[in-house]
Structure of S-adenosyl-L-methionine-dependent methyltransferase:
Amino acid sequence: MKRQGETDEQDPDVEFKKPRLDEEDPVIKDDPDWDDMEVKLEYNDVEVQNGGENEGFSDEEDTKDGIIEKMEDIEASDHQEAGEIGAAGELEPQTDMGLRYKVQLSNIYKFSSRGDVEAFCKKNGIVNVKVKKIPKVDNALLTFMSEAEMNVALRVLDGKIMKGKSVSLNVLALNVPQRKEKPTRNDRSESDDRTPSERLADQVTPLWRKPYEEQLAIKSTELQRVLGRKGLVSELYAIQNLREDQRRDLAWLESGTEYTGGVPCPFRDIIPSPITENYRTKCEFSIGRDLSGELTVGFLLGGFRSGEMIVMDPSETKHVSKPALVFARIMQDHVRASEYPPYDRKLKSGVWRLLVSKTFLSGENMMVVQIDPRSLTEEQIAQEKIALQERFAAGAAAAKLNLTSLMYQEWTGVFDGFSDKAPLTLLAGEPHVHEVLCGIKFRVSPFAFFQINTPATEILYGIVKDWCGLSAGVRDTVVLDLCCGTGTIGLTLAKLARRVIGVEMVKQAIADAKENARANEIWNVDYICGKVEQVIPQVIKRVTREMKVVAVLDPPREGVHASVIEAIRACTELRHIVYVACNAAAAVQNFVALCRPTSNKYKGRPFKMTRAQPIDMFPHSKPVELVLEFRRDPPASAPAVADPTAAMGSVASVGANPAAPEGGSNPLAA
C-alpha cells in the first residue's frame, strides 16, 4: 500500500528488518537515528532499484575486520548523501572535514545502540565524535576530525565502564573516506541488450517477464519466509531470559510445522488480482528528456545515484491505466510546445517537474501539474495556467475523457515528488474526485491516500469484513478503525457493525472521512483526530465485556510505532485484531510486539496469529497485501465498564444529527 511521498519510480519493495527487541534490549527503540541507519545496513536479499548491488551482512563478513570495513563504507555513503563527496568518491574542496582518525571501541554490550555509545562519550566529555554501531556486535567505530581529539578520547575512555563492561580502544586508521564506486547502468550498458522500454519495465514492474501464476508463487514464498521459521518465528524464539510461563506463551509457534512454509497458522493461497494490466489509478510522471533528447512525460530510467536522469515513455508498461497514459501524452504535447525547459534534477533549474494523475473507475480524473516557478515572471505563470487549462480541456474532449479536476502546484524543494508541503491552485473543475468502492462513493482529495487497484481492494475489504465477524442482521460489534485515513475500511463495514470508531492523526483525512460518511448517510461512525496510542485507551475502556470489539489496523508500509502496539497490548478488553499489511517484512516488528510474552514494556496477554491471507493488488510488481488475524485469551478477570456509545464526547466525538434515522445517532453533524 503506497503512502504519501512515494513515487512510481521508487521501488516499493526494499525491505529491512530491525534487530530483535529482547528483554535485555530496551535501548534500541529510543535511538532517534536507528531507522536511518538500518536502511543502509540491511537490504536483505533485495536488489536496489537503481542498479545497486545487494548490500547485506553475510556470515563471512561478520568479522571485526569486515564490520569495520562495512562501517567505513557506510560513513563514506553518509557523506556522499550529504553532498560532501564528489562523483569520483573524493572529498569535495569546500568541506572542512579533513583527515579522519578512526578508533575501535570494543567490549561493549552488543545490543547497545548508536545513541548509547554517543551518550557514553558525551558523559565522559567526548562530544566531537562520529559514531557507527552495527546491531548485535560488541564494538563500535569512533571517528575524530583531529589527532588531538582522538588522543583525548583514548586517554579518557579507555577502561571506562559502559553498561557493566570495561571498554577498550584501538586506533585503526588515518584516512580520507573513499566511497566504493559501484557500476552505474551506463557502465553496464555495453553488455545490456535490453531495449529502453524493457529496462523501464524491469524497473517499475520487475516481475513483468514472468507468467502471472509464477509471480503469485514468488510473492507467496516471500511472505512465508517473513512469517515463518526464518522471520517472525525466529524473532520470537530469539527473545532471551524468558521465564517458564513466558515460554509457554510461545508454545503456539510449534504449530508452524503443520502449516505451509513453517508459518505458525493457516496460510491461505494468494488471491490473484481481478485485473492484471492497466490497474493503477494513481501515478506520478516525471518530466524530462528521453535517450534521444526528446521532451518526455513518463518514468525515470535509473535515478540520481545511478547517474541517469532519463525519462522514458510509460506507454509500454503493464500497470498504468489507459486514461493516465492519455493525460501523460497531453502533458507531453504541452511541454514540447512550451518555450520553457523541463526541471533539471542535477542543476536544480528549469520549469516543468511533475504530473500527478488520479484516474478512477468512476470515470472521474484528477491531474496536478507541478512546476518550479523561480525562472518565470508572474505574467508568464498566469499565461501558462491559461494554456494548461486549454490544453487539458481540448485533449480530454478529444479522448472522450472527463477532466474532473485540474490543479497546479509550485514547488522549489529538493524532493523530486508530489509534496503536501506546498499549496495547490485549482485551475479547472472540482478540488476533489470520487471513486466507488464496495458500493460506497468516496471523495478523494489530491493528497489523500487511496488504494490504487479498486477491484482488488474490494476483495481485500471483503476479507476484512468476514474476519471481523460481521454479518447481516447481527450488529453487535464495535469496530475500531485504527489509522483510518479517509475512512474507506470502516465505512464499508459500518452497515454490519454496531458502531465504527475511526482514529487518524491527519486532519485532512479525518475531514474526508466525515464528508464520506455524510454523503453516504452512514451515521453510526465517529472519527477522532489524534494519535492511536493516546486515543485507544480512552475508547476501549468504555467497551463492555458483553460487547464484541475488533480493531482493524491498516498502517503505512513500515507499520505503526512501537507505542501503538504497547497501547493495544495494554487494553485487555481488546482481544481481536485484523491487521492489513502492505509490506509484511517492514512491519514484522509489529507482529513480534503483538505476540511476544508479557513484560514490563508489553503488558496484557500476548496475541497469537491465527490466520493469514495474501491478496495480490500489484501485478508485475513485488509488493503484496497481507491480511493477518491476531487473537488473545481474555484476562483472568476484567471489570465491567460502560457502553462506548455513551460519553463519546470525552474522546472528541463529533456530535449528533437529529435528522438521522430512528435508532441511530449522527456523530458527524457538528
Observations:
- The chain has 16 helices and 22 strands.
- Residues 378-399 form the longest helix (22 residues).
- Confidence is low (pLDDT under 50) at residues 1-98, 638-670.
- The longest strand covers residues 168-175.
